[in-house]
Amino acid sequence: MRTLGRGHHRINVSTDYVDAGGEHLWVDVLRATLKHGLAPRAWTDHLQLTVGGTLSNAGIGGQAFRHGPQIANVHELDVVTGTGEMGTCSRDRRNDLFFAALGGLGQFGIITRPRIALESAPKQVRWVRLAYSDVVAFIRDQELLISKHAREAGFDYVEGQVQLNRTLTKGPKSTPFFSEADINRLAGLASETGSGAIYFIEAAMYYDETTAPSVNQKLGMVLAQLSFVPGFVFTKM
Ligand SMILES: Cc1cc2nc3c(=O)[nH]c(=O)nc-3n(C[C@H](O)[C@H](O)[C@H](O)COP(=O)(O)OP(=O)(O)OC[C@H]3O[C@@H](n4cnc5c(N)ncnc54)[C@H](O)[C@@H]3O)c2cc1C
After folding, report:
1. Which of 8, 23, 57, 174 could form a disulfide with 4 if both were Cys (CB 3.0 to 4.6 A apart)?
2. Residues 204, 127: contact at Cβ < 8 Å?
3. How far is the CA of 134 from the centre of ligand 1 (A)?
4. pLDDT (0 to 100) of residue 77
5. CB of 105 shorter than 6 A to ligand 1
6. From the centroid of its chain, how far is CA 168?
7. Domains, the chain, ranges and CATH?
8. Is the CB of 111 under 6 A from ligand 1?
């Protein structure tokens, strides 16, 4: 859908929303909004995807436990239906078309312009990975971190993944997050488990100049509730 609009659509940033073309890439929407200190509330991991493409699916990422998927963060849409009709829809206006087009796999119309909700872009972030060898502890901690209580006082972003011993050490690195020494420690941990698998919680805590003095204390309080393998916490600023 990259040719939609033939280059005529613009990304227009307002105070709490951005209008984009269905063909724009999320990474370009982010670049445009960051110039105003703003960012969409919900993301996918990979940003080289079109806005219309993920809004036709769901758009799930580490912020979904707070804000819902991307389709829950849209104010209105311009849609071209299968009969060639073009119109604007929202929760209050032609809402059958609005809710059908969002997550509709392109079956109910082509999204040409979504109006996407924005929030203040995080200024700084503590980025954390926690390693687990026990899947039950891993899932229990994920559920804790996305629970209502933790949403009020915990991370702003939470995801998880499973990694096999051989995928840690062989093939292209999926992330520059870990140093060589970290990878070797993690591979050692994975080789001790019967399955050769370990699990990661990936999380982020946002902060700014005002909250900077207390962010380490807040992070420490959240980590103290979790059951990752002792010593297997990795943090980046
Ligand atoms: C590397 C990679 C990482 C991903 N990561 C995530 C992730 O973290 N979270 C997540 O939720 N999803 C993720 N996805 C899945 C992604 O949401 C879907 O593949 C989505 O369709 C991608 O959009 P696209 O721009 O590639 O769409 P396309 O491949 O161009 O289109 C996919 C389908 O979406 C529909 N469509 C596309 N544009 C429009 C439009 N403007 N109006 C109506 N229908 C349209 C069409 O039915 C089309 O067949 C990932 C995909 C990839 C390739």
Report:
1. 23
2. yes
3. 33
4. 98
5. yes
6. 23
7. 11-120 (3.30.465.10), 124-236 (3.40.462.10)
8. yes
Ligand 1 centroid from CA 227, angstroms: 35
Q: What percentage of the chain exceeds 90 in pLDDT?
A: 78
String of b and e for 53-75 (b: at least 16 CB within 10 Å)? bbbbbbbbbbbbbebebbbebbe
Distance (Å) from CA 66 to ligand 1 centroid? 22
Task: Say if ligand 1 is within 6 A of residue 70 CB.
Answer: no
- Outline where the chain has alpha helix (H): 26-34, 51-55, 64-67, 95-101, 135-145, 148-153, 165-169, 180-192, 212-223
Quick check: CB of 56 below 6 Å from ligand 1? yes
Query: What confidence score (pLDDT) does residue 73 get?
Result: 98
Type of residue found at 107: Q
Region of 196 on the Ramachandran plot (φ > 0 left; ψ -120 to 50 alpha; else beta): left
What are the beta bridge partners of residue 215? none
DSSP category for residue 5: G
* Ligand 1 atom 3: residue of nearest CA: 46
List of the chain residues with pLDDT < 70: 150-151, 171-175
- Contact between 233 and 128 under an 8 Å Cβ cutoff? The reply is yes
Can you tell me which residue has the tokens 């445009």?
32
Rounded to whole angstroms, the maximal C-alpha distance in the chain is 61
Q: What is the pLDDT of residue 174?
A: 59
Please tell me if the CB atom of residue 88 comes closer than 6 angstroms to any atom of ligand 1: no
pLDDT at 142: 95
Identify which of 2, 25, 45, 56 to mutate to test ligand 1's pocket (most ligand atoms within 8 A of the CB): 56
Alpha-carbon distance of 62 to 155, in angstroms, equals 10
Residue 237: both structure tokens together: 């600023």
